[in-house]
Amino acid sequence: MKLTGAQILIKSLKDENVDTIFGYPGGAVIDIYDELDKEDIKHILVRHEQGAVHAADGYSRASNKVGVCLVTSGPGATNTVTGIASAYMDSIPIVVITGQVPSNLIGNDAFQEVDIVGITRPCTKHNYLIKHAEDLAKTIKEAFYIASSGRPGPVLIDIPKDVSNAVVNYKAPEKVKMRSYNPTYSPNMKQLKRVVTLIKNAKKPVIFAGGGVILSGASKELTELAIKTQTPVTGSLMGLGGFPGTDPLWLGMLGMHGTYRANMSIGECDLLIATGVRFDDRVTGKIDSFAPQAKIVHIDIDPTSIYKNVSVAVPVVGDCKITLAALNNLLEEKDFKDVKSKRQKWLDKIQEWQETSPLAYTQKDIIKPQFVIEKLYELTKGNAIITTEVGQNQMWAAQYYHFNKPNHFITSGGLGCMGFGLPAAIGAQTACPDQTVVDIAGDGSIQMNIQELATAMQFCLPVKVVILNNGYLGMVRQWQELFYEKRYACTNMEHAPDFVKLAEAYGAMGLRATKPEEVEEVLLKGLSSKTTVVMDFVVEREESVYPMVPAGAPITEMLLV
Amino acid sequence: MKEDKHVLSILVDNQPGVLSRISGLFSGRGYNIESLCVAETTDPLVSRVTIVTKAELPIIEQIEKQLNKLINVIKVNDFTDKKYVAREMALIKVQAKQEDRADILRIVDIFRCKVIDVSQEHYTLEVTGNEEKMSAILNLLKPIGIKEIARTGVIALFREPK
Lengths: 561, 162
Description:
heterodimer; A: alpha/beta; Rossmann fold; 6-stranded parallel beta sheet; 22 helices; 37% helix; B: alpha+beta; Alpha-Beta Plaits; 4 helices
């Protein structure tokens, strides 16, 4: 069968069950767009290519499918880099297709030429420059396989213009077989038996769950393990929702802005079962004082995660879901008959910490950002898909929205990328049209990709944006307050647009609350609307996120409210 | 912890950009490369990269795991503490004045190397050997006057059981 490169590309995408692409056209991808337009693949036209990648990321996290974006060469390609780096840090499976100048011009400093394969080599799981249209079908199949298998991640495919319009013989690709890439899914049983012994002997165990639990869909297995062994569970930012946030065994988030009881329990536990985590510095604090009394079991699909930051007693390379299921099978009911009474002392201790220092704030005359999130949680009954920007808004969302289900908290964890939340919400809303999707934002970060309001309007995506507007780059301001003697260097955002008018200019609904008693009303009105809504909450300007572990301090040494 | 020298032998897909992935991994993560050699193997689809690096043991383990994580890397072997043979090669252009010529040729003889180019003023020598031999001959030739030198990195293979 004779097909053009562009036709092969679209056919291959359909063979991978792609039904949605986020993208932005340009000269080098005109041929691809010409074919795309003839097919029943939905194309979401973003307003900036960074938005396309974040949207594909949000789409993937909400749906567990591979997110796809399509952009042109040169600036189109370079604009994707931040989004790709964010997806890479958070192990999100996306495929980014970039146009490239014609092959004979590559290396010529041609118009809109960049070496995007070179640029993205360190921030993709893998990338390709396609030189012959005959390689397209096989490469695309391989790219989807690599993106979604093992530890997932972004894959970029760069397609020169002459490759998209070359006419070649199409041959359906065979099953992907790569001698150099074979992820390990099943754990070593010998290691797991050692874990069983450790669990049986532990007096003060804690489970630490990360993004791997969400990515592998291991929530059920994790919950079973925790309940069977009566082990309290904490999570990284990426792990929120992996374990029900309202379960009595849930400790709250761990780390720099973790709860007092979660951080203290790490200081005192004698067994730490870490699963699907990579021991990021924001979680461990001072590494030498992290879980000093604990034997650490580290379960992860990526061998490079293990021993990278902490030494562990039992390393287990494997998929979280498969590994936790196998572990649950090895744990016999009879060994845990009286586990409740055995654990009581440890759980009491945790309860004591909880009572000493729960998450807290006082709502007076000015709206507290935490209050907005608590109200949002209440009104959405904890069922909304929450995306966030980065900074204080992200931490308050993590602390006060108690995620009960996986795939409901979508945030740029590793890269900490401001401007992530709105496009990610657009992606999530595209994947889940019937769900409430809320972007929790700050007044600083929302302005980094606010142009995507137009995208939401064009495609009738009723995302809700909650701006916690304090007129500061709040997280940096907080550091300046605490560690730089209140020298607020360049964090005062003195001039901001009127977000209500701005929303209206885009055709969206704009609402504002300036007093605590207006919060619920604004949220109710916004959430019940069928259109895109921007809700501007004018909050306490100098509110800080607590607890806080100063950078480099042990996580048990927290600044409390 | 002690930083040790490790010889890593890496089989990779013989494709453009693979070397850049490897060198980028080293530079991006702050590992160091003391020497590096690449060439095709008998399988034209596979190349062998030999890297000498120096790091503490946990870092070496991390380097090996990170290399294995690269999609184009087929196999990583660390030769250190195993039985292997290793050689490097140098071309040394040495000043050969009339009065030094006999000395140079004696050194060539002792080190079992070859003179591969001769001119009025210079000899170019081809030397192969391990690192010690290389530095020994360079030390001897230095006082005579080395004009230019081109060196390969280490290449290595496992010894077969006898």
